[in-house]
Design a protein that fits this description.
Layout: E1 11-21, H1 22-33, E2 37-41, E3 47-60, E4 68-77, E5 82-97, E6 102-113, H2 117-139, E7 141-142, H3 144-159, E8 162-165, E9 168-184, E10 188-203
Length: about 210
């Protein structure tokens, strides 16, 4: 019978930085928000359309204490200010709750540019509430189910030997995968993923 000698506990504890470029996030946001109507409902349940989103982009906020800035181009739909194109900046401060594996909206600030004081006040009031409620739901994101799903898929591959390249296999089991850091850089959004588990590298081919 072949005897396998245990050399070490083969523990793995590694943190991997992952970057996501803002253009990638731009395309995602455009697909989700372009064409959406910003509306307000009165006490009788009647909706009033205030504006429609024409375009949206994301970048690092230039205001101290905030992480991200959404640059939103709108077209007004009200009878008083109809078909005017305006720009709104939504600055967001987000935080990572490592234990719960959730990202949430901590604070926000909205700036409007319509060159009209009344329009600024109306749009900021409506958009303030609309954007806060919308982004609060989107930014309060629970990563745990998604991490568990990827962890299970990774372990299935490792059980059957994951070939890194010809002659090199990875074998093991990842016991924990979690987000441990979040940072908005100048050109990219950065997150850190920490992996913990056991594993070995198996060589099946040697070239001389």
């Amino acid at each position: 019978m072949e005897k396998t000698e245990k050399i070490s506990d083969t523990n793995i504890d590694v943190t991997i930085p992952v970057k996501i470029s803002y253009p990638i996030l731009d395309r995602f946001l455009k697909s989700k928000m372009t064409g959406e109507i910003i509306a307000k409902e009165n006490s009788e349940g009647k909706k009033f359309n205030y504006a429609q989103i024409l375009n949206v982009s994301i970048a690092k906020s230039n205001i101290e204490g905030f992480d991200l800035c959404l640059d939103i181009n709108l077209q007004t739909l009200t009878s008083l200010f109809k078909n005017k194109q305006v720009k709104v900046f939504f600055h967001a401060s987000v935080e990572l709750h490592e234990q719960e594996q959730k990202i949430s909206l901590k604070d926000y600030r909205i700036d409007g540019e319509t060159n009209n004081w009344i329009a600024d006040q109306v749009l900021e009031m409506v958009i303030n509430k609309w954007m806060y409620e919308k982004l609060k739901r989107k930014l309060n994101f629970n990563f745990f189910p998604h991490i568990q799903e990827h962890l299970e898929a990774l372990n299935k591959k490792l059980e059957n030997k994951l070939e890194a390249k010809e002659g090199i296999n990875l074998i093991g089991s990842m016991e924990d995968m979690k987000l441990t850091n979040f940072k908005a850089g100048e050109n990219d959004l950065w997150v850190s993923i920490t992996l913990q588990g056991t594993g070995i590298i198996e060589l099946t081919k040697l070239e001389f």
